[in-house]
Specification:
The chain is α/β, with parallel strands linked by helices. It is built from 11 helices and 24 strands. 21% of the residues lie in helices and 26% in strands. The protein has helices spanning 12-23, 64-67, 95-106, 186-195, 213-216, 228-234, 339-357, 371-382, 387-390, 414-420, 495-510; strands at residues 2-8, 29-32, 111-112, 119-123, 126-131, 134-143, 149-150, 162-163, 178-182, 201-206, 240-252, 255-262, 269-274, 276-279, 283-284, 298-299, 304-305, 319-321, 364-368, 395-402, 405-413, 427-434, 467-474, 477-483. α1 crosses α7 (339-357) and α8 packs across α11. Strands 1, 2, 3, 4, 5, 6 and 18 form a 7-stranded mixed sheet that branches. The protein has a 7-stranded mixed sheet with strand order 8-14-9-10-11-12-13.
Length: 513
């Protein structure tokens, strides 16, 4: 039997898509999982077992949509018992809590465990997937395997380093040793924080500058929970962050000699010695299961599959991607690499699949085609939506107006709408939540830097903090833009500051001004 949809990987993204197919009554699907449990990634990672995805059960609100802004671990579901708040009360939960959560969520969908895919091929009829002695066929294939293969930078002697996925995590294993950690992401600093008490010296090295998430607003950059190590560097406590390139790693007796080129010291080249070298350089997508008939094109140093605005492979029709490997479309800008981002991307993917293969229109609510009706709908949504909040600048609500008919479409990928549209319309209003264009250049803790006043309607476009942006599309182009003034408590409903200026903007647009 040929399935409509075959999903590879029972991690959060694969389970999310399966749950959406179930809810839609599309039962002609199956999830294949190579491990004995769902979410097997979290049985090993992060190595020191503390997640950096926040969990805040106590929000002061009983609005489930609003609460998802502060819940970075739950999948989208109407079942309150399957929210992550029931599995942990910790702000940064233990990884084992995620394993338990995904095991319960997986019981609601169809998963085949211990079924590791070894080969994928494609012909005119669809995909053939081999897993051991079993063969599966499907019209469409969705790969949700994450990034499972360690990324290895081009460094002479890199194979001498101990990889993040294999290194010991017991701090006593590094007692009185000089340690070099390659990488400047969260895994590198998580490791450095864990080993500070037992090592003599730790150097964290890489060619790029350390970027703080609190400044860039990209949650994959260094998080405060992992940055204790920076204190030990800046307060002269033996450790250091090295900016530059590792040219070579060589054995030196029982240790290692590393040739390092400093990028901020007039290109000084030094030889440094260490007892241990740990590689915390991240992961990449493993494309080895695909044969020549359907091997996807890779991008960003071959770390991710290249994807269209429908999350489809750019060179293999009907091959789609979901989960952290979908981050190629908003790489280091929004949140598609993380559960609290890609759960909405998966829901958008599901709607795209329904539209493309089942002829179903994008779900939409009907509005009166008046400035007041449209304004009220936009204001109500921007004050509640978790999807636009989490996937800022990437997902949008779209209001289409055709004559006297207005429709409100939720959570549409911006680039997908720009290309494909949502049907005939005289006007379209695309609503996003966005930071200012140079928000990552502003130190949010520098009180000498003036900020745009929260009631300065005419200066709202210059705001650096997250705020709603409404773009008027007409005749296939952006014909007007309106920014709502930022607000400390993210409540954009003040009549004279938010509501009336937006209504006036929409009225001018509908009149063709």
């Amino acid at each position: 039997m040929t399935l409509d949809y075959l999903i590879i990987g029972a991690g959060p993204a694969g389970l999310q898509l399966a749950a959406l197919l179930e809810a839609e009554g599309r039962r002609d699907y199956l999830v294949l999982e190579g491990a004995a449990v769902p979410g097997a990634f979290f049985t090993r990672f992060p190595r020191h077992r503390q997640l950096i995805s926040i969990n805040k059960p106590h929000t002061g609100s009983d609005d489930p949509e609003l609460n998802l802004r502060l819940d970075w671990n739950s999948l989208l579901t109407d079942d309150d018992s399957l929210l992550f708040k029931h599995y942990s009360r910790r702000y940064f939960p233990h990884a084992d809590d995620m394993v338990r959560y995904l095991a319960d969520f997986a019981r609601t969908v169809k998963v085949r465990y211990n079924t590791r895919v070894t080969r994928v091929s494609r012909d005119d009829t669809g995909f053939t997937v081999r897993a051991g002695e079993e063969t599966f066929t499907a019209k469409r294939l969705i790969v949700a395997t994450g990034v499972s293969k360690p990324y290895e930078p081009d460094i002479d002697g890199f194979e001498l380093a101990e990889r993040y996925d294999e290194m010991p995590v017991d701090p006593d294993d590094y007692l009185d040793q000089r340690v070099l950690i390659i990488g400047k992401g969260n895994s590198a600093f998580e490791t450095a924080d864990a080993l500070m008490e037992t090592t003599t010296v730790i150097h964290v090295a890489g060619p790029s500058a350390v970027r703080m998430a609190w400044r860039t607003h990209y949650v994959g950059h260094l998080r405060a929970v992992n940055n204790n190590f920076l204190d030990t560097y800046q307060l002269k406590s033996a450790n250091a962050v090295l900016d530059g390139d590792i040219r070579r790693i060589e054995r030196d007796g029982d240790g290692y000699r590393v040739t390092f080129s400093f990028s901020r010291a007039d290109e000084v080249v030094k030889e440094l010695t260490y007892d241990r070298i740990l590689a915390c350089t991240g992961f990449r997508f493993d494309a080895s299961i695909f044969d020549d008939s359907c091997r996807p094109e890779l991008v960003i140093r071959d770390r991710f599959p290249a994807q269209t605005d429908e999350w489809e492979s750019v060179n293999v029709p009907d091959l789609f991607f979901a989960g952290t490997i979908s981050q190629v479309r908003d790489f280091k800008k929004s949140t598609s690499g993380f559960i609290h981002g890609f759960r909405y991307a998966v829901r958008a993917l599901h709607r795209i699949l329904e539209r493309r293969y089942a002829g179903e229109p994008w779900p939409a609510g009907k509005l009166d085609a008046t400035p007041k009706s449209i304004t009220d709908a936009v204001i109500e949504r921007v004050n509640r939506t978790s999807a636009l909040w989490q996937q800022f600048g990437f997902l949008a609500d779209v209001v289409t107006v055709a004559g006297t008919d207005a429709r409100y479409h939720e959570e549409v990928p911006v680039d997908y709408f720009t290309r494909a549209g949502l049907g005939p319309a005289d006007h379209a209003f695309v609503v996003t939540l966005e930071y200012g264009p140079e928000h990552d250049q502003v130190d949010p803790f520098d009180i000498t830097v003036s900020r745009v006043a929260q009631d300065a309607v005419g200066q709202a476009h210059a705001a650096a903090y997250l705020h709603p942006v409404v773009r008027w599309h007409r005749d296939g182009r952006v014909a007007g833009v309106h920014h709502l003034a930022e607000n400390l408590e993210n409540q954009w409903d003040r009549p004279q500051v938010h509501v009336q200026p937006l209504e006036a903007f929409i009225e001018r647009c509908l009149q063709g001004a």
